[in-house]
Specification:
Blueprint: H1 3-27, H2 32-41, H3 48-61, H4 66-92, H5 104-107, H6 122-142, H7 148-162, H8 168-198
Helix pairs in contact: 2-7, 4-6, 4-8, 6-7, 6-8, 7-8
């Protein structure tokens, strides 16, 4: 085996060990009030008021961009969700920590384990995709910087590790994937709107 391949394999094994240790630290916190909070944070219905507020804001203050913003948000979500769940998870084939016997004690059955594969986290890709698209779009449309969108995405990702669904590496890769898709959707929407405005 080439020396470079040996070093790469050793590095990946080291990353795996670090990821497992981080998982044990985060998922093993075992605090009752944090159990409830993190379970709530990763629930899709928890954030309905946020989605309603963003829709209200766009319709109320940025009506001329409303349908493009909503359409691009839906496309962004569809791309991140499909690519993370149907393309990259089978491609990477990384087994969820809650399916690994030696790590099951840290998950404590707070939520169902779900599918077999974990990388990348679909929650992370979806939420960072929307956060990056919304942040950049709203900054461009109104010059307002909604920094809390990043905190929202981070909390959801942290909750995914805490409840035992993912390793930290899973949410990091998902966040990178989502951010790339969100930025791409922003660039496409911005270019489309600027061309239409200049025509």
């Amino acid at each position: 085996m080439p020396l470079l391949a040996i070093y790469l394999l050793s590095f990946l094994q080291w990353l795996g060990r670090v990821d497992s240790q981080l998982f044990k630290i985060i998922a093993g916190a075992n605090t009752p009030w944090l159990d409830e909070l993190m379970t709530l944070m990763r629930n899709q219905y928890t954030w309905i008021p946020l989605y309603a507020f963003i829709l209200y804001y766009i319709l109320r203050y940025q009506r001329r961009y409303a349908w493009q913003f909503v359409l691009c948000s839906l496309i962004c979500f569809a791309i991140t969700d499909f690519s993370s769940a149907s393309i990259f998870k089978p491609l990477f084939g990384r087994v969820r920590p809650c399916h690994i016997e030696e790590l099951q004690a840290y998950t404590r059955g707070l939520v169902g384990c779900g599918g077999r594969y974990s990388m990348p986290s679909s929650h992370a890709s979806n939420h960072f995709g929307l956060a990056s698209f919304w942040y950049l779009s709203i900054t461009w449309m109104s010059n307002r910087r909604w920094w809390l969108l990043w905190l929202w995405a981070f909390v959801v990702c942290y909750a995914q590790v805490y409840v035992g669904k993912h390793y930290s590496g899973d949410v990091l890769v998902g966040a990178l994937l989502g951010t790339c898709v969100g930025v791409l959707m922003y660039v496409l929407m911005k270019n489309f709107l600027e061309r239409r405005r200049g025509s």
